[in-house]
Design brief:
The chain is mostly helical and about 130 residues long. The chain is about 75% helix and about 0% strand. The protein has 5 helices and no strands. Helix 1 runs antiparallel to helix 3, helix 3 packs across helix 4 and helix 4 runs antiparallel to helix 5. The termini are far apart.
Amino acid sequence: MISLQSFHYLILGVIFQINHVLFATSITMDRIFTSKYLDVWSATGWIDNAAILLSSLFGAVLLAIIVEKSKKCLDFSVTLFLIHIVTCSIYGGFPSTWDWWIVHTIGLIVMVVLGEYLCSKKELSDIPLLQL
């Protein structure tokens, strides 16, 4: 779980660095841990919204690599987002905007569904046999 959480924040940080280069957004921890920059009604808000949703796509791939079992994807994803909520609450107060909850809920759903799909695809792949 620690590796999944660490990679999640690493990917978010890298995506926010790319956003800084492409869109000249500020680099601050508030982008990860507060709802200040998330806004579904503005173009600048969608830069950060897209970063969170993109990190959920990468999170699904990480589930397939780290967890490897489709039955565990829901548990790991929900645990990751619960730890994220606690971390956000400690850092900047409990997230109180609908935008934050909508974006993170969609991200959670994407991560669970795609992660389960990728894990089940990996589970059902043929086992390579040694050719003698």
